[in-house]
Every structure is written in structure tokens, then in C-alpha cells.
Amino acid sequence: MRKLLESTAEAAIQYLEKVDERKVLPAAEAVDNLELFREALPEKTKRVIAGIQQDGTCYCGGTVWQGQEAMRISVSSWATTEEDVEKSLTAMLRIADNIE
After folding, report:
1. This prediction's pTM
2. How many CA atoms lie within 13 A of 28 on its CB side?
3. pLDDT, average across residues 49-66
4. How large a percentage of the chain has pLDDT more than 90?
5. How many domains does the chain have?
6. Which of 46, 70, 85, 88 would be 38's cystine partner, CB 3.0–4.6 Å?
7. Cα–chain-centroid distance for residue 59?
């Protein structure tokens, strides 16, 4: 169990580091394998989430944290690799870059 938690937390940290490079706003501090992010405008956050879900490369859900729209990234599989994280992030950032 410990190994599972460590590996999913490491993958979540990869998301945090890569997304931070793009200056996307963390919506909350990281907790184990869960990260929350948001765009500066709530409507853009919603459109990015919808675009990611439509794309199908990965799944990110929406949530409201402290009254603000946020995107939830949760890594829950022990089989998640660094390559999986990179593939998902590439799709996420491509989608976010194409949404105004």
C-alpha cells in the first residue's frame, strides 16, 4: 500500500511541476495524489476541463474549491508512468493553449 501511495504521489508531483512551469494557478496545496488547478478566469477553467474530457487522452474533473472553479487531477493507478504523465500534460496544455 505504501508503494502505491508513493508512486501515485510522485506522478501527481510531476503534474504540479510541469503545470507550474506554465504559470497555471494551483487552486490548493497538493495532497498526496490529488492536484487542483485553475485558470485565471473561471469560464476558461470550465472550457479547459470540457476540452480535456472531449479529447479523451486523460480525464480531469471539475470541482469548486473555496468558491472557485478548479480542475482536479487525481492519479490513482499504480501503473501510471512518467510517459503517461507527459502524454496527459501535453494534451492538457495543448487544449488550454487553444482556448481563450
Report:
1. 0.74
2. 18
3. 93
4. 23
5. 1
6. 70
7. 9
Q: Return phi, psi of residue 55, to 5°.
A: -60, -45
SS3 100: coil
Is 27 in contact with 70 (CB distance < 8 Å)? yes
At 19, which helix (H) or strand (E)? Answer: helix 2-21
Q: Which domain holds residue 14?
A: 2-97
CA distances from 5 to 16, 19, 25, 100 (A): 16, 21, 25, 36
- The answer to whether residue 73 scores a pLDDT higher than 70 is yes
Q: Which pLDDT value is given to residue 47? A: 94
Q: Which residue type occupies 91?
A: A
Report, as an integer, the average pLDDT of 32-37.
68
Please, are residues 44 and 99 in contact by the beta-carbon 8 Å criterion? yes
Name residue 25's beta-bridge partners: 38
pLDDT of residue 68: 87
